Amino acid sequence: MPRVFITGLGFITSIGNDATTVTSSLRSLRHGFELYPPFQKPDIPVKVVGTIKEFFTDSTDPEDWTFPARYRIKRELLRSMAPNGLFAHCAMLQAIEDAKLTDADLSNPQTGLYAASGGSPMLTHYHHERLTKAGVMRCSPLGIVASIVGTLNFNLVAAFKILGASCGFSSACASSAHALGFAFDEITLGRQHRMFVVGAEDGNTDAILPFAGMRTLSLQTDPALASRPFDAARDGFVGTGGGTVVVLESEAEVARRGVTPYAEVLGWGQASDGHNVAISHPEGNGSAAAMTNALRAAGVAPGAVDYVNAHATSTLIGDISEARALRAVFQQDLARVAVSSTKALTGHGLSLAGAMESAFCALAMRDGFIPGCAHLATVDPECAGLNLPRTTEARPPGIVVKNSSGFGGANVALVFRRVT
Fold first, then answer.
1. Of 131, 216, 287, 394, which is most buried by a Cβ count within 10 Å?
2. What are phi and psi of 267, to 5 degrees?
3. Could you tell me the end-to-end alpha-carbon distance of the chain, in angstroms, rounded to an integer?
4. Is 31 labeled as catalytic in the residue annotation?
5. Distance of CA 321 to CAs 6, 29, 291, 313, 378, Å?
6. How far apart are the C-alpha atoms of 262 and 259, rounded to whole Å?
7. Residue 387 burial (CB count, 10 A)
8. What is the model's pTM?
9. Residues β-bridged to residue 1
10. pLDDT, tens only, 240-256
11. Catalytic entry in 31, 89, 127, 348
């Protein structure tokens, strides 16, 4: 079976809008949280968001949006985008440049694109209100493709003239991890030579605030205390948006183009909890099964893993569930395998999380470091035994596992190997 490599990355995130800045933030454990102005009202208990800097996308009219001048996007493309589409488009431009891809590399039957987002609640609400208040024929003809789940793949496939496989994934916070896993399959099965994997979310009031009703968002007013995975005092996750693009290519394409990969994708696995529509299985059964399936598919023993980038969102139940899953999988090797959740820095990107954090793993493998556990003061006793480094470790992880979990108990684990 063809080997699969990561050859390009693009980032619009709360901790940086390019690989250099993101790497620096990961190394120094610099978070991207701010007091979010729309939340500073007495009737909104949530105050902190992982904000996207240099972009203004609060308006429902893309004509009002502002973004860095380095990105030149035609007006006719912007008209069909949600904010997450803008973030993804800019990350896509970065990834294409990073991977040194030509127009011919992009637009051919052997290059495809898989994407994940929750759509745009802001634009869905806006266009529905226009429908009911202004009338059917006063609705934008692009309102549907700009707002519904699938808006990313609709827009990106058209804008970049993608001719290969394309699909949108919707498994909540496991979505872009699923996209990466199935993109890996497309290449190993010989159906595609190259795949773009994209995750993006609006990260605004309409996308984040509804989670307050689930009692899953942190109520902290201090940005440095709001996201604390595995900490005994954690009280929920911090929402964020942005976009990340990961370029996967076959070994033959890597050799043909003479590029140096970030890392190799060894395999992946998935499993379901079969437990609850919104709450993780208390023993982490599905997450443990996903990791076991992934390691088996990759041909990797648990003891060979150096680092796990955990899904841990800083919620009370979720972090404990994952800790138990890690304990079940790694057993006697648990104390040796470093574990951290970079959501302590970025916040939870929802469907974006899997792709974004896989890209963080690629940076860590290439540049030789393991991100520490930011904001961790007192480890929850239920998470005892995990190797939770408080600071960034200056050593290259050889084998990395990336966990993602979503509503309904959807669990995905991805396995990466450092390229030496």
1. 287
2. 165, 180
3. 21
4. no
5. 30, 25, 13, 11, 18
6. 10
7. 17
8. 0.97
9. none
10. 999 999 999 999 999 99
11. 348
- What is the H or E stretch that residue 343 is in? helix 343-346
Backbone angles phi, psi at 4, to 5 degrees: -125, 135
CB atoms within 10 A of CB 249: 28
Count how many Cα atoms sit within 13 Å of the Cα of residue 206 in the half-sphere of its side chain: 19
Task: Tell me whether residue 311 is one of the annotated catalytic residues.
Answer: yes
| Cβ–Cβ < 8 Å for 340, 397 | no
Tokens, residue 274 = 């079969």
Nearest C-alpha neighbor of 95 from the set 198, 9, 199, 194: 9
Those residues with Cβ within 8 angstroms of residue 323's Cβ, 6 or more apart along the chain or in another chain: 230, 284, 380, 382, 383, 386
**Domain 4-418 falls in which CATH fold?**
Peroxisomal Thiolase; Chain A, domain 1 (3.40.47)
Per-residue pLDDT at 139: 85
The Cα 58–Cα 66 span in angstroms is: 10
Which entry of 90, 173, 373, 383 is annotated as an active-site residue? 173
SS3 label, residue 216? coil
Per annotation, catalytic residue among 311, 361, 373, 383:
311
348 included as an active-site residue: yes
Ordered DSSP codes for 260-278? PPSEEEEEEEEEE--S-SS
Portion of the chain with pLDDT greater than 90, in percent: 98
138 pLDDT above the threshold of 90: no
Is residue 100 classed as helix, strand or coil in its secondary structure?
A: coil
Question: Where do runs of H (alpha helix) occur along 56-213?
Answer: 75-78, 83-99, 103-106, 121-134, 143-147, 151-159, 175-188, 205-208
Characterize 227-248 residue by residue with b for buried, 16 or more Cβ atoms within 10 angstroms of its Cβ, and e for exposed: bbbbbeebbbbbbbbbbbbbbb
Residue 259 tokens read as 């590029």
Tokens of 279: 């709450």
Where in the chain are the domains? 4-418
- Identify whether the C-beta of residue 312 lies closer than 8 Å to the C-beta of residue 319: yes
- Provide the β-strand partners of residue 388: none
- Residue whose tokens read 């033959």: 252
pLDDT at 1: 84
Q: Facing residues of 209 across strands?
A: none
Give the burial class of 58: count Cβ atoms within 10 A of its Cβ; 0-12 exposed, 13-18 middle, 19 or more buried: middle
Residue 176: name the closest of 196, 206, 146 by CA. Answer: 196
